[in-house]
Amino acid sequence: MTAYMEHKDLTNEVIERGRANEIADGVHRVLDRIAESESVAGREAGSVHLLAATKTRDVGEILAAIDAGVHRIGENRPQEIVVKAPGLARLLAERGYSLGVVETEGGAAADAAHHIPFHLIGQLQANKIGKVLPVVDTIESVDSIELAEKIARRATMRGITVGVLLEVNESGEESKSGCAPSHAIDLAQRIGAMGGLRLQGLMTIGAHVDDERTIRAGFAHLRRTRDQILASGAEGTADCTELSMGMTHDMAYAIEEGSTIVRVGTAIFGERAFI
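Request: output the structure for the sequence above.
Response:
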C-alpha cells in the first residue's frame, strides 16, 4: 500500500471549520480564474468544467470542496477510490447527490444536476479494472486498444457503460503516458465501436516546458484531432466532445485552446502533507 495511506486516514469525514474555509477559498479562486479565462477566450461562461484532483485528500476535505462548488472529482489511484467511495457516496446522498456510476431503471442516465461525476485520472492496470468499475463513471487514462478492450469486457459483464477518454501524448515526452498523436483518430474510432464503452473525448497533459508556444501547440493539436474524430461520423464517436487538458500552471492556455475540463488539486487543497 502507498506509504501515505498508512499514515493518513483517508476515510476521515470531519475537518475543522478553518480547513473547510481554506478549501472553499481555493475552490472560489480557481473558479474565478476559469471564468476569467473563458471571458478572455470569448467562450461561453460555464463551458469549462473544474475537476478537483483529490489524490491524498480525505473524505471530509473532498466534501468541503464539493460544498464550495466542485461538481467533478478525480482520483489517481484505484486503491484510494475503494477507500473513499463508500463514505463519499453516503454523505453525498444525504445532500441529495449521487456519485459515480448510477444504475437506474431502464438504463436512464443520472440527473446531471444532482450527480457528481467520479473520474479515474491516473493510470489503470488491468488487474484493478474490477475495483474501479462499480464506482467511476469516466476513465481518463485509456491509452491503448488493449486496455480499452479489457475495460469493455468488464463493463459488459456488469451490464454497465463506462465513459472513457483517449489519452494522447501530445508533448512526445517519454515520461508521459498516452498514445501517439498519429494513432489517435484510428484508436478513437475503434474504441467508439466497442460495447460497454462511451467515448467521451480526449485527454492530454501539457508539455513540461517553459515555452507558451509549445504548450499551446499540443493543446491546439488535440482540439483539431477531436474535431476530426467528430467530423468522421464513425460509429460511437458522436459523444467525443470533451477535451481534458490544462492544470493549475497552464489552465489559461488550455481554456483558450478549447479545453472543456481542467484538473486542479494543489490550488484547491494546498500543498500535500503526504506524497
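The domain at 3-103+135-269 is CATH 3.20.20.10 (TIM Barrel).
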